[in-house]
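Hi R.,

Here's the chain you asked about this morning:
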Amino acid sequence: MVVEYIRYTVTADRAAEFEQAYKAASAVLDDDEHCLAYEISRGVEEPEHFVVRIEWDSVEGHEQGFRRSPRFGEFFQAVRPFFDQIDEMKHYEVRQSHRP
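And here is the predicted structure, written out as tokens:
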């Protein structure tokens, strides 16, 4: 498993639109076999910052499976208006985790 983090800076006047875009895009993530889990978080101290965290079965599952799937266009169409607001989009391997 790998975790993709996408960090955004979104102005306050577009925050609701951003959240709605990911709400629409989440239907595609829900149906994708390579997506294990995801969350969209908004900064408390700095509410213009959002982090999208997506757990994928593998980098290949994300890049060759999801991105080449028939529904990827639907996902990208929903979030594309915010592509220029991305500060970081990278995969990470989990080294340590704890869930009570």
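One quick note: Residues 15-31 form the longest helix (17 residues).

Cheers,
M.
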